[in-house]
């Protein structure tokens, strides 16, 4: 192998007359008998190379055996193409390279699929042959974008005096949060490490150490049942700062986001970003990560319909629930009664028992299955409350408040997509603030931290930690982009007494708190500075920046929904001897009897 | 908490007259009754702040309760110090800040040790209170240096068109290499992931994908019994490139190293770096990572002493071993007979049965326990071979060659340290090349890869892979700095047939090779480019750059020699229910009977 003089994609008319050595893959080959054209591809792009009798007959005859995805080394002269053959679609389109020397560095057998974006592929096949899937132009671009994104984040944070510090991967299992991945210890019989769900405790300890501004692009792990947008291992941009107030932190993140979107997508976004409190986000959009690129806000009807003859509404309210609705503009004609009734099935996904609807007709009357429960005045009130016009359809959900939020929140998003209400190339950032600090976990019969146990309560709510824990708001903030939660953070507790109060509110006994988090409680007594931070999901950020919808497309070697790697077949069985070293034995789970 | 206007360390005479807000830790406090001085410290350095009656009596009285490591927020005016009080040792030494407003952000109780470099601390105490240990100036500087080093590496590699791509942490266990850390799968009963020992397979697959230039600062894991310079998890600068020959790769690494040493230590190093073949390194220095900052090279004496009357020598040679020696200049006076005899114990660590020595006296005669075995001519020959002078001591090791290398290699280093032969601030880089591809593993009764199974044999040796495997040299190279192996790499096999031959030489059956590495063999058939790479141990690199000798001092939260974290107490026991979910049971190891 020689050293190449140029990459394929960089050749232009400037190199005409020069001798070049190129290396790359055969993207396409056209054999016209006397002449063979090959599009030679490398990471930088591709260029047309030409073989013919006049240039070199040996190279031509070698080129006859070449096939797609062979790896070639070629030498020749850059020449101008006939103007009629210019290809304006590619940067190298005005030139080609006349090849007088060809070496096949490695052949390729027939591929399981063609290396094109357009290929419609089963995802399992893509994952099994991930090394080929990653050759497709869009996958290449996504990985390049990911690499540029992380570089940009690092450059930005280091400009702001943040230091990257690595924290352990083999760490301690804690009872809070999601399920840990465990790693058996060979040396300490029967003991386990846990892979980190986040570097939370270590980054707080680094604040105790006085590093003041820490970040890490950190791998994190959660052993949860996977959804489309989850992976067992994921990457987090993890940031923590001392002596930096919430407002300054948010402002800094806004600069980072603005710069990123500008440099990577050429779009200007306005800072400061919008802010919504959690209550506002839920009440207006039915979501704590609302997509505010379109309206269709939730309308509260509880007061208005509580006396209506429609039992579903009145009894929902009587049972402590609510009735809310959204107005979808101008679909009365295009959505049939059947279409609308079918949305009930969609609503059920979110726990609703059904979805009532009314069309507004040309006479400004409401029509539909439940119209009969509303007299003329009630109808007119409804139209007024919804600010509805002829042609609109009104949807209603009646249930406990969380179900109503979830249902209408999802319905809004569904319609926005169906009706193409979303401007492309829009980056709609917003902050959601003042989350509840705690939520009651019915199953466990205790309060759980909404964010995590180290989040600071809002100052004026601190006194309710003992008395009305569910009313305490957190000094927490989520960064939302286009309806996705990009990440979240909070100002942290840094006083032992307050942290102990928090553990108590979470139902920890004093001993449990000490056993699990004693080192943190101790650390808080040795001069811990006020601190706070944020963590962003890098995979999701890249997904949005790359205009993709599948999180797996942003990860070089992702896992399937059952946490398998189809390429390497991980996880897999291991020899008995290895388990013996770990003092472990496999004990098959009991199957539930009725299966 | 307010927003600080300055950091402590940045204040100079330029700010005289300005009002500033500072936040930081009490480094030192001197209470003179009417006036209190505090050295206030943050990450940037420290500055003297002053409280007295005239400035503000309330602040003065608050300052009376302040103790070491309290976290303070202070406001006041920057003033010039009396010239007699200038402290030239610190950048802020000409000024101080007159404080009229003090807020204690967080107090601190008495510390288990003082925050000073000089504190002589038991390492276990340092690790238990790592968050305090990390406040010590040298630890701060080391972490800052580490952060700068990784930033510099990233900047350099991205200038060279390398992309950072993340590879999985939950991957497949393979039988080659060190012992894996295993991670039980919950979803796939009885199956395990392995934490990566390196991203080797994935980085090669990325080459198959056409990314051409990949790097990653990657966490790697080995479940081995730990020595002082090993950690169960460590960080590797992992680099792989296609279409880049060995010479170009080595040259690039030399630029990176030169830039790093220049920017971080202000030292110019000369490129190209020296190169030694493996054979040369072993024969001259007794080590494949020789410290060439000093001479004291190994001298081969086998021919010369094989007929000597000293049985230890003659029988070592008769048994296929060798006799080699080193000459240590000018220590005959200062090392007593007892000192020299005691070195036998040192030699035993390396497997030698003893260590013979001879002193060269003023008359150019050799004296010592074995002198009697050498007649006048033999003595003179010895002195000549060693190029020895009066006052030197000659050391001899007689054993199988590896033991002789190990013993004398270690002895050289020991003397270089004792005799302070090493120039400080020297960065002596060199490449060791042409390692053996395979070595015979007596225990396993098969050949093992010296580097790893993906390393390319030297072209002209390929044909010996079937016939004389132990003679095949590898296209491998190690980067050595000051006697430490910084890292190593190789050009890789990229052809299925050659890779299969290699697996065969390692004793894999066709089925085993397919079962373990089938995906790689398959990948090689779809147009895999020639590629190679290198990996550097970041922890060790930082250790050398920071002039430290303990690898743990370069890692924020390291593990002990028994792979424990003394701060968090990882690993620890987990609830039975968690093991049930993983279908695992702890099965205590059988103790060996005679214990």
From TrEMBL, chains A, B:
Catalytic activity: tRNA(Asp) + L-aspartate + ATP = L-aspartyl-tRNA(Asp) + AMP + diphosphate
Binding site residues for L-aspartate: 176, 222, 451, 492
EC number: 6.1.1.12
GO MF annotations in UniProt: aspartate-tRNA ligase activity; ATP binding; catalytic activity, acting on a protein; nucleic acid binding; transferase activity
Main location: cytoplasm
S-adenosyl-L-methionine as UniProt keyword: no
Top-level taxon in the UniProt lineage: Bacteria
Pfam families on file: GAD, tRNA-synt_2, tRNA_anti-codon
UniProt-annotated location(s): Cytoplasm
Signal peptide interval: none
Subunit structure: Homodimer.
Family: Belongs to the class-II aminoacyl-tRNA synthetase family. Type 1 subfamily.
Protein name per UniProt: Aspartate--tRNA ligase
Gene: aspS
């Amino acid at each position: 192998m020689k050293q190449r003089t140029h990459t394929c994609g960089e050749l232009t008319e400037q190199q005409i007359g020069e001798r070049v050595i190129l290396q790359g893959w055969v993207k396409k080959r056209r054999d016209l008998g006397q002449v063979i054209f090959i599009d030679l591809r490398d990471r930088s792009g591709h260029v047309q190379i030409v073989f013919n009798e006049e240039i070199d007959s040996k190279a031509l005859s070698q080129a006859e055996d070449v096939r797609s995805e062979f790896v070639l080394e070629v030498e020749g002269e850059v020449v101008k193409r006939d103007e009629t053959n210019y290809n304006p679609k590619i940067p190298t389109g005005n030139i080609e390279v006349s090849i007088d020397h060809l070496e096949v560095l490695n052949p390729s057998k027939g591929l399981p699929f063609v290396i094109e974006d357009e290929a419609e592929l089963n995802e399992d096949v893509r994952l099994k042959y991930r090394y080929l899937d990653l050759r497709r132009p869009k996958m290449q671009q996504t990985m390049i974008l990911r690499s540029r994104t992380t570089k940009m984040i690092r450059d930005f944070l280091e400009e702001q005096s943040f230091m990257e510090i690595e924290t352990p991967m083999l760490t301690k299992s804690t009872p809070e949060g999601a399920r840990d991945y465990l790693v058996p210890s060979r040396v300490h019989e029967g003991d386990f490490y846990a892979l980190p769900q986040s570097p939370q405790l270590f980054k707080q300890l680094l604040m105790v150490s006085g590093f003041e501004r820490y970040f890490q692009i950190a791998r994190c792990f959660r052993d949860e049942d996977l959804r489309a947008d989850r992976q067992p291992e994921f990457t987090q941009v993890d940031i923590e700062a001392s002596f930096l107030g919430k407002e300054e932190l948010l402002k800094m993140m806004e600069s980072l986001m603005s710069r990123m979107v500008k440099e990577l997508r050429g779009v200007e976004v306005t800072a400061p970003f919008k802010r919504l409190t959690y209550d506002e986000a839920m009440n207006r959009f039915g979501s704590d990560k609302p997509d505010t690129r379109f309206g269709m806000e939730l309308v509260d009807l509880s007061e208005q319909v509580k006396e209506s003859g429609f039992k579903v509404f009145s009894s929902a309210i009587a049972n402590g629930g609510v009735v809310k609705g959204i107005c979808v503009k101008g679909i009365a004609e295009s959505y049939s009664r059947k279409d609308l009734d079918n949305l009930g099935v969609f609503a059920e996904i979110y726990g609703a028992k059904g979805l009532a609807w009314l069309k507004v007709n040309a006479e400004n009357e409401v029509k539909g299955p439940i119209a009969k429960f509303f007299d003329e005045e009630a109808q007119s009130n409804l139209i007024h409350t919804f600010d509805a016009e002829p042609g609109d359809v009104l949807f209603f959900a009646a249930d406990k408040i969380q179900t109503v939020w979830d249902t209408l929140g999802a319905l809004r998003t569904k319609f926005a997509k169906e009706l193409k209400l979303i401007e492309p190339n829009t980056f709609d950032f917003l902050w959601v603030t003042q989350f509840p600090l705690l939520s009651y976990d019915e199953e466990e019969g205790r309060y759980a931290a909404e964010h995590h146990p180290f989040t600071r309560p809002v100052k004026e709510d601190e006194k309710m930690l003992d008395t009305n824990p569910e009313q305490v708001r957190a000094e927490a903030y989520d960064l939302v982009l286009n309806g996705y939660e990009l990440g979240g953070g909070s100002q942290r507790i840094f006083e032992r007494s307050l942290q102990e109060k928090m553990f108590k509110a979470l139902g920890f006994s004093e001993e449990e708190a000490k056993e699990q988090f004693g080192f943190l409680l101790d650390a808080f007594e040795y001069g811990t500075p006020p601190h706070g931070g944020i963590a962003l999901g890098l995979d999701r950020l890249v997904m949005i920046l790359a205009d993709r919808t599948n999180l797996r497309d942003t990860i070089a070697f992702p896992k399937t929904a059952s946490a398998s790697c189809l390429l390497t077949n991980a996880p897999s069985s291991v020899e008995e001897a290895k388990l013996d070293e770990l003092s472990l034995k496999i004990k098959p789970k009991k199957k539930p009897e009725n299966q």
